Amino acid sequence: MTDSHAVTGKSLQAQIDSLGERMEKGFEEIKALLRGNEERLRSLETREASCQPLIQSRLDAAWRKIDEHEKEIETLTEIAQSLRATLRVVTGVLVVLGTGVGAWLVNQVLGLIK
Questions:
Q1: What percentage of the chain exceeds 70 in pLDDT?
Q2: pTM, rounded to two decimals
Q3: Positive/negative CA dihedral, 65, 66, 70, 71
Q4: 96 lies in some domain
Q5: pLDDT value at position 5?
Q6: Closest CA to 80 of 72, 91, 94, 66
Q7: Cα atoms found within 13 Å of the Cα of residue 15, Cβ hemisphere only
Q8: Cα–Cα separations (whole angstroms), residue 56 to 18, 60, 62, 67
């Protein structure tokens, strides 16, 4: 019986060794995949880090333009309000002048009729 146990032990040992080799190979593949993922992640982080200042500077420039446009809009609004006030004054003056001219014309026509 010792002989059959020895053969079985050798057979088991061979299977265990084979399994160990396959597991070791699988672990190496997993390690290689993890290294590849780490490298890809590092490259993505590097690319993102290089894009970050560019994006930030573009955003800053956009905000500056928005601020400038807001100031221009405020200026144009003030000008429009000033023109509206001027238009009211001019309209008032023209109404008075038109009334005066109308009265003068009526007076002239009535003077011709008499």
A1: 94
A2: 0.47
A3: negative
A4: no
A5: 58
A6: 72
A7: 6
A8: 56, 6, 10, 16
Residue 114, helix vs strand vs coil:
coil
- Count the domains in the chain: 1
| Total residues found in the chain within this entry | 114
SS (H, E, C) 67-112: HHHHHHHHHHHHHHHHHHHHHHHHHHHHHHHHHHHHHHHHHHHHHH
- Domain contains 103: no
Position 106 in a domain: no
Structural domain including 43 reads: 1-86
Read off the tokens for 84.
Answer: 């509206």
What is the distance between the alpha carbons of residues 53 and 46, in angstroms, rounded to a whole number?
Answer: 12
- CA-based radius of gyration for the chain: 47
Q: Please, which pLDDT band fits residue 76 given cuts at 50, 70 and 90?
A: very high
Average pLDDT over the chain, rounded to whole?
88
**61 dihedral zone (left: phi>0; alpha: psi -120 to 50; beta):** alpha
